[in-house]
Design a protein that fits this description.
CATH architecture of the largest domain: 3-Layer(aba) Sandwich
Strand order of the largest sheet: 4-3-9-8-7
Distance between the termini: 65 Å
Structural class: alpha+beta
Radius of gyration: 25 Å
Order of helices and strands: HEEHEEHEEHHHHHEEEH
CATH superfamily of the largest domain: DD-peptidase/beta-lactamase superfamily
Helix content: 40-55%
Length: 328
């Protein structure tokens, strides 16, 4: 009788262990299937444009991302054909949980005025140590004056011989895309430090006399580190993105989203004589979709600036509608 009781106790223990193990296995499988990327942001304070990551746990790709990527890819090909463009590259990144897609993202382009963003970042990096440089006044020299032909003309130009604060100059460089402001600012920052910013996002850099080539994914990194406040402190990152929301180019990314949506962005244009498809137009930035901000960077090559603007607008509109559809 004692042996039977001992056997029964042993059997109960074995069954209990099996049930516990089975339950643990089911929970693990269920968790694995339902778990998404978990990213914790710092939402404390009155900051508007930045949201640094405090903790990050990356798992499998978000459900539906492959369908989203396929839809965007088809749209890119259709728009390229409709507007007779030779090339379109697109990069999208969800800033809440990290998934991204790239369409022709390995193609290199001339960044042109897009390079004004890292120049602004270096100025603000120096301002972290010495805020007095905001008020420092300098005179515009004849060597600063740029007469580059632009499709998007600045509404205000810096005047030779006039004095401006460095804060005014950096604002005009971004908001108005003033090329004179670039050379004036470069005379007053530590140009050797620019390489650090480029290396942070993986963009090759030699010096300011040689223009680098960039890819959409790499260039988008400047906006990612501003949003995450991982290069500049949060105050200066916020200031940079605030200036970028005032960029005076409304025919690209901005034209594709509702008017109430903030867009921190920078455009760049370049026309290279002597080659076919010599017009390049790009627009990259952060679209602050409510509760789900995302980076969108579009670079184009073609022969018609107006058509390239329309292409960027249409793609911005399509991506916004897809994000809106997937957020409901």
């Amino acid at each position: 009788m004692w042996n039977n009781k001992k056997f029964q106790i042993g059997l109960n223990i074995i069954l209990t262990i099996i049930i516990i193990c089975l339950g643990f296995f089911i929970i693990k499988i269920s968790t694995k299937e339902n778990k998404k990327n978990i990213i914790t942001h710092d939402n404390v304070g009155s900051f508007i444009f930045t949201n640094p990551i405090l903790d990050c746990e990356i798992n499998t790709q978000e459900e539906g991302l492959s369908i989203f990527s396929e839809n965007v890819n088809k749209k890119v090909e259709k728009i390229k054909k409709d507007y007779l463009l030779s090339h379109i590259s697109l990069y999208f990144r969800d800033l809440n949980n990290g998934p991204w897609i790239g369409i022709n993202e390995k193609e290199s382009f001339s960044p042109a005025s897009l390079l004004k963003v890292p120049i602004m970042m270096e100025f603000l990096h120096e301002a972290e140590e010495d805020r007095s440089i905001f008020d420092k006044k300098i005179k515009i020299l004849s060597s600063d004056i740029q007469s580059i032909n632009q499709n998007v003309q600045p509404s205000v130009n810096l005047v030779e011989g006039e004095e401006y604060s460095l804060n005014e100059i950096v604002q005009l460089m971004i908001k108005k895309s003033d090329n004179t402001a670039v050379l004036a600012l470069l005379r007053n920052i530590k140009k050797d430090n620019l390489g650090n910013i480029f290396r942070t996002v993986g963009v090759p850099y030699e010096d300011t006399n040689k223009e680098v080539e960039v890819r959409v994914k790499d260039y988008a990194g400047f906006f990612r580190i501003l949003f995450n406040a991982s290069y500049l402190n949060r105050e200066m990152s916020e200031k940079a993105l605030g200036i970028l929301t005032q960029t005076e180019y409304y025919d690209g990314l901005v034209a594709g989203v509702p008017k109430e949506i903030s867009v921190a962005h920078k455009f760049g244009e370049r026309k290279i004589d002597g080659i076919s498809n010599n017009s390049q137009l790009h627009d990259c930035g952060i679209i602050y979709y409510p509760g789900k901000p995302y980076i969108l960077c579009i670079m184009t090559r073609g022969n018609n600036f107006v058509n390239q603007s329309k292409a960027i607008k249409d793609l911005s509109s399509f991506v916004y509608s897809e994000v809106n559809k997937n957020s409901k």
